[in-house]
From TrEMBL:
Keyword Membrane: yes
Protein name per its UniProtKB record: Dehydrogenase/reductase SDR family member 7B
Record NCBIfam families: PRK06181.1
Listed PANTHER family: DEHYDROGENASE/REDUCTASE SDR FAMILY MEMBER 7B, DEHYDROGENASE_REDUCTASE SDR FAMILY MEMBER 7B
Designated gene of the protein: DHRS7B
GO CC aspect terms: cytoplasm; membrane
Pfam families per UniProt: adh_short (PF00106)
C-alpha cells in the first residue's frame, strides 16, 4: 500500500486531529456566512413593500425607525399628534438619498394615543387608507420624574394611558384584521425599565412593566395565528424623552438628563430594531453592561438589587437636597 504523506506545518507533519479541524472550521465559517446571507435576504423580502405603522414618528426613535424602514422599502403609516411635524418627517424621508430598494411615499395619521376613541377611529382611517397592516410599531411614549409621595394619581394615569393603554388599544383594534389574514407582526418599544424599576420613575417603570407583561401574554396567544410579537427594551437613547417627561404635578420636566444625552444614538437603536423585526426576534435588550447586569441581578439576586436601588434613591435625594 502507498504511504500517505501528512501535510507539514512548522516543519512537523500534522496529526489527524489538526487535519480534520481546518476543513471543519472552514466549513462552519462558510455555513455561517451562508446562514447570514439567507437571513439578510429573508429580512429584505419581509420588509420590502410591507405596510408598517409607526407611532411617535415625529421625533427620536420613532423618526429614526421611519427612516430605516422607509429605506428598506416598507410602506409607512406615520402616526403622531402633530400633523405639521409628521409632514416634516415625510419631507425628510423624500429627501433621503435613494437606495437600491423601491421606496414609497408615507401616509400620516394624527391622533393622541391616550384617547381610546381617537385610537379606534385612527385604526379605521389606517385600514381604509392602506387596506391592512403587516407590522405595527408601538413606539410612542412619555417618561416621568418624581417621588411617589408627591405624585398626583392623575399623573400616574396619564403615563399609563400613553405608554400602556394606548399601545394596548391600538393593538387590539388592529388584531382582528391580522388574525383574519393569519399574518402580522406587533412590535412594542418598552425599556430596560420594563424589566427593572429604578427610583423616581414609578409611573414610567410601572407602565413599561405592564407593557412587557401584556405583550408577552399576547405573543403566546397569537402564535396560533402566525402573528409575531417583538418587545424592544432599550437603555438610554439620545432623544427628547427626558425633556418631554412629566413631573409629579404634571408639568414638563424640561431637562436633558446626562444619562439621556450620553445614551446610544436613535439612528443606531433604530437599526437594531429593524434587524430584530426582520429576524422576527421575540425580545431584544439594547443596553450597556450595567443595565444588562442590573436586569440579571433583579432575577438572580433580588435582595442585592433592592439594596443597590435603595442606595441609589438615598444618593439621588441627597444630591437634590444639596
Ligand atoms: N430615550 C430613551 O432613553 C429611551 C426611550 N425609550 C422608549 O422609546 C420610545 C420613544 O421615545 P423617544 O424617541 O426616546 O422620545 P421622544 O420624546 O423623542 O419621542 C416620543 C414620541 O412619542 C410621541 N407621543 C408622546 N405622547 C403621545 C401621545 N399621547 N399620543 C401620541 N403620541 C405621543 C411623541 O409625539 P409628539 O411629537 O406629539 O410629542 C413623540 O413622537 C418611548 O416609548 C420610550 O419610552 C425606551 C428606553 C430608553
Ligand atoms: C454584580 C454587579 C451588578 C451591577 C448592578 C448595577 C446596578 C446598576 C443600576 C443600573 C440602572 C440602570 C438603569 C437603566 C435605565 C434605563 O436604561 O432606562 C431606559 C429608559 O427608559 C430611560 O428613561 P428615563 O426617562 O428614565 O431617562
Amino acid at each position: 500500500m502507498g504511504h500517505i504523506r501528512k501535510p507539514i506545518y512548522k516543519g512537523k507533519p500534522m496529526d489527524i486531529t489538526s487535519m480534520a479541524i481546518i476543513p471543519l472550521l472552514l466549513g462552519s465559517l462558510g455555513l455561517f456566512g451562508l446562514y447570514r446571507l439567507l437571513q439578510r435576504l429573508r429580512t429584505r423580502a419581509y420588509l420590502q413593500d410591507a405596510v408598517v405603522v409607526i407611532t411617535g414618528a415625529t421625533s427620536g426613535l420613532g423618526k429614526e425607525c421611519a427612516k430605516v424602514f422607509h429605506a428598506a422599502g416598507s410602506r409607512l403609516v406615520l402616526c403622531g399628534r402633530d400633523k405639521e411635524r409628521l409632514q416634516d418627517v415625510v419631507r425628510e424621508l423624500a429627501s433621503m438619498a435613494k437606495k437600491t430598494n423601491k421606496t414609497h411615499k408615507p401616509h400620516t395619521v394624527t391622533f393622541d394615543l391616550s384617547d381610546t376613541e381617537a385610537v379606534a377611529s385612527a385604526v379605521g382611517e389606517i385600514l381604509k387608507c392602506v387596506g391592512h397592516v403587516d407590522i405595527l410599531i408601538n413606539n410612542a411614549g412619555i417618561s416621568y420624574r418624581g417621588t411617589i409621595l408627591d405624585t398626583e394619581v392623575d399623573v400616574d394615569r396619564m403615563v399609563m394611558e400613553t405608554n400602556y393603554f394606548g399601545p394596548v388599544a391600538l393593538t387590539k383594534a388592529l388584531l382582528p384584521s391580522m388574525i383574519k389574514k393569519r399574518s402580522g407582526h406587533i412590535v412594542v418599544v418598552s425599556s430596560v425599565q420594563g424589566r427593572i424599576s429604578i427610583p423616581f420613575r414609578s409611573a414610567y417603570a410601572a407602565s413599561k412593566h405592564a407593557t412587557q407583561a401584556f405583550f408577552d401574554c399576547l405573543r403566546a396567544e397569537v402564535q396560533q395565528y402566525e402573528i409575531e410579537v417583538t418587545v424592544v427594551c432599550p437603555g438610554y437613547i439620545q432623544t427628547n424623552l427626558s425633556l418631554n417627561a412629566v413631573t409629579a404635578n404634571g408639568s414638563r420636566y424640561g431637562v436633558m438628563d446626562k444619562n439621556t444625552a450620553e445614551g446610544r444614538t436613535p439612528e443606531d437603536v433604530a437599526k437594531v430594531v429593524l434587524k430584530a423585526v426582520g429576524e422576527k426576534k421575540k425580545e431584544v435588550l439594547i443596553a450597556g453592561l450595567m443595565p444588562t447586569l442590573a436586569v440579571y441581578l433583579r432575577t438572580l439576586i433580588p435582595k442585592l438589587f433592592f439594596t443597590l436601588m435603595a442606595a441609589r434613591a438615598k444618593k439621588e435625594r441627597k444630591i437634590k437636597d444639596s
